[in-house]
Specification:
This protein is α/β, with parallel strands linked by helices and 243 residues long. It has a single domain, classed as P-loop containing nucleotide triphosphate hydrolases (Rossmann fold). The chain contains twelve helices and seven strands. A seven-stranded mixed beta sheet has the order 3-4-2-5-1-6-7, with helices on both faces. A hairpin with a 5-residue loop joins β3 and β4. α11 packs across α12. The radius of gyration is 20 Å and the shape is globular. The relative contact order is 0.18. This is ATPase involved in chromosome partitioning. GO terms for molecular function: ATP binding; protein tyrosine kinase activity.
Length: 243
């Protein structure tokens, strides 16, 4: 788990990790982890960060004491095995094809309570597999093993996979990357989900430049922040005596 993308694991005190904790708290308001267990992460186009969000959300949910399974449902260009640096010889496609049982391919990770089901070999019919009753039965099986199930999916506006998969999810989080996603892409992606009668939980805005917000956060809560604040007060001059 040495990937630079696993910020919630390698940089637990960072501003970005705290943002994932805020997202986790917001999802708790929707009963994610209780009444809602299966959350699908979907984006309109390429490069918006669904895999990045799924991996780091999985970490922060597990750190909160919940049992989490990340399922890489991108059967065209999977990323979770690369992010976590684990084997992808067998995975989701192997289960849906009937070659493996879920218990044989779900992998435990160094974070307590966190597991991942990688995509496995790329099949010829991803959309058909993801929309099948086999996928539904798999998700029902996973619900018995975990409190939170995160589904990482391919772009909504490019292939039908995510739209057909949304019917098996309890809720969908729409991922939008700043300066990458166009307004048209976001609207079109939402329309796909609405037409599929998906339960849209909200939008996760990815790739925002923290700038001064990040600096302020680190100065108050980062390592040595209290010392910097104390020094600032020590050097402060009384009002009316500034020359």
């Amino acid at each position: 788990m040495n990937s630079h993308e696993l910020i919630a694991y390698s940089q637990p005190r960072s501003f970005i990790t705290e943002s994932f904790r805020v997202l986790r708290a917001n999802l708790h308001f929707f009963e994610v982890g209780n009444a809602l267990k299966v959350v699908m992460l979907a984006a309109g186009g390429f490069g918006e960060g669904t895999s990045f969000l799924a991996a780091n959300m999985g970490i922060v949910f597990a750190q909160a004491g919940q049992r989490v399974i990340i399922v890489d449902c991108d059967l065209r260009k999977p990323q979770q095995h690369l992010i976590f640096n684990i084997d992808n010889q067998f995975g989701l496609s192997s289960v849906l094809a009937g070659f493996k049982e879920p218990e044989e391919v779900i992998k435990a990770l160094p974070v307590a309570g966190l597991k991942v089901l990688t995509a496995g070999p790329l099949p010829e019919n991803p959309a058909e597999l993801l929309g099948s009753q086999k996928m539904n039965r798999l998700i029902l099986n996973l619900k018995e093993k975990a409190d939170v199930i995160l589904l990482d999916t391919p772009p909504l506006n490019v292939v039908a996979d995510a739209a057909v998969l949304s019917k098996w999810a309890d809720g969908v989080l729409l991922v939008v990357r700043a300066r990458v996603a166009s307004c048209n892409s976001v609207v079109k992606g939402k329309e796909f989900l609405v037409n599929a009668k998906a339960n849209i939980l909200g939008v996760a805005l990815n790739g925002v430049r923290a700038g001064e917000i990040s600096e302020t956060y680190n100065s108050y809560f980062g390592k040595g922040g209290a010392v910097h604040k104390a020094r600032a007060k020590k050097n402060e001059k009384p009002p009316g005596k500034v020359k």
